[in-house]
TrEMBL record:
Database matches in InterPro entries: Beta-ketoacyl_synthase, Ketoacyl_synth_AS, Ketoacyl_synth_C, Ketoacyl_synth_N, PKS_Beta-ketoAc_synthase_dom, Thiolase-like
Record protein name field: 3-oxoacyl-[acyl-carrier-protein] synthase II
Pfam annotation, one family: Ketoacyl-synt_C
Domain Ketosynthase family 3 (KS3): 24-427
GO biological process: fatty acid elongation
Protein family according to the UniProt entry: Belongs to the thiolase-like superfamily. Beta-ketoacyl-ACP synthases family.
Amino acid sequence: MACLPQEAFAQSRSPGAAAPPTRTPDVAVTGIGLVTPAGTGREASWDGVCSGRPTAATDPELAGEPVDFSCRVRDFDPVRDLEDPQAWRYDRCTQFALAAAREAVGDAGLDPVAWPGERVGVVLGTAVGGISTLLPQARKFDATGAGGLSPMLLAKFLPNMAAGHLSIALGARGPSLQTSTACAAGATAVGLALFLLRSGACDIVVAGGAEAGVIPMMTSAFARMRALSRRTGEPAAASRPFDRDRDGFVMGEGAGVLVLERAADAARRGRTGYALLAGYGATSDAHHPVAPHPEGRGARAAIRAALADAGAAGTEVDHVNAHGTSTPLNDAVEGAALRQLLGTGASVTSTKGVTGHLLGAAGAVEAAFTALTIARGLAPPCANLTHPDPALDLDLIRGPARPQRPTLALSNSFGFGGHNAVLAFRPVAEVTA
């Protein structure tokens, strides 16, 4: 990672209590790190989703289960990618988070050795945490009693430990928070980071989501709910957001981490970033444990809140990275909400056609893809969109990635329990340091 001169921070903000800002400051995404089924690393993941090539495949670890395929991260080596021979100390979820954070911080041109750690926060989202560690240990406990348990069990599986390990690795001594809003958790984490920066509580926030829940019990539980696709004979075609023939989502894993700073602070050290995080909206359906409100009441309210926070109208939105899970109900409800609030002027994609559903990591990964769309002028397509649902009057991106430079883009995330989180992004404007 490039070393950041201490004087750059001295010119920014002192380590002491920050004065309340006189106006809402612009917040920039200055670093992105990704570990996804589309590829390990930002560029590999971006190339993968822009190619539109699905990653779902038969999964040997799921053999004999009702659904035997998933979207795995297949080119990840924790020892190599973390440069740590002791990487076994971390759950796979935490390994993903550490790798993505390492890339994001380096991409932002920051060095934890040089930054003022007391002004750096960490917010990380997850839906199930270290469940791939917990279940084998539970079996050992049942078989052998306490003597069979690993002394690392709690440090590996507790849901907060991914954020805790991140703060330790980065020397981030500001707020360290873990969000658990199911499949909205990664977006919730990014939204909380926005609050921390606007309030002056932090100067830098490392925010995102991580998940490693592709295990037989989890996939079987989702299958019992009839939430997963049953296309066992053609797994690559199974995740098909907004398609007429969609029948459920595909389980995935991975992590996405963003480095967020006030844009003026970043400009002082010569950084502009990928995009501005202009707004955040969060609501609850208060309707049903696992089903969205049939009229999308909470989703619509979250979209309106994000737009209000960004000072924008729905007609200004020209791109949406939708939640788009490939389930019959979600895509219908979300599609209707987008059509009503935004009209037909926004292009709509769901990268879950390539990556599958990354649960608590999904919102952060898709926020990163949205920022990259703005920065690079290219919108990824909806994979497997063979027959667009005729009930949805949306500008769905089909075929190759679409050249586009959005001026206002949304990233939607919704989760079990009725959690809704929407992030609004704008291009980086000229910032005076």
